[in-house]
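Example for tutorial group B:
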C-alpha cells in the first residue's frame, strides 16, 4: 500500500518545501507534534516530530525544519537551497521512511518480548 504522494515547490527564495500527503490508512498525522504509523490491523507506532527533526538535522546539512499538518494529513519538509538540493530531497524522504520502518521493527520486537513475559 502506498505510504504517501508528494509535491515539491519553493516556500521562499532560498527554501524548498516537500509535501508528503500521507495515506491515512497507513500513516496518520495525529497533531502538529506526532504521527501514527500503522504496523498491523490493530497496532500503531507514534513518532514525535522532534525525533524526525533531530535525525534529519544530523543527516542533511541544509535541512531546516519538518512540520506536521493534521488537518491535511501532510508532513512538510523544508530544506535550504544548495547545489545538492535534489539529493537532499531524496535523502530526506528516504530517511523519514527509514525512521518509520525502524520504529516498526523496535515495536514488533518489544511486543514479542512482552508476550513472552505474560
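The residue assignment follows.
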Amino acid at each position: 500500500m502506498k505510504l504517501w504522494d508528494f509535491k515539491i515547490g519553493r516556500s521562499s527564495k532560498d527554501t524548498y518545501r516537500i509535501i508528503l500527503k500521507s495515506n491515512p490508512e497507513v500513516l496518520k498525522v495525529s497533531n502538529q507534534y506526532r504521527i501514527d504509523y500503522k504496523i498491523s490491523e490493530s497496532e500503531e507506532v507514534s513518532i514525535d516530530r522532534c525525533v524526525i527533526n533531530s535525525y534529519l538535522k544530523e543527516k542533511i546539512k541544509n535541512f531546516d525544519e519538518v512540520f506536521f499538518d493534521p488537518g491535511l494529513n501532510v508532513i512538510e519538509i523544508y530544506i535550504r537551497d544548495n547545489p545538492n538540493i535534489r539529493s537532499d530531497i531524496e535523502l530526506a524522504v528516504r530517511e523519514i521512511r527509514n525512521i518509520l520502518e525502524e520504529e516498526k521493527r523496535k515495536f514488533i520486537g518489544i511486543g514479542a518480548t512482552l508476550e513472552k513475559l505474560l
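The longest helix spans residues 85-117. Compare this with the pattern of hydrophobic and polar residues in the output above.
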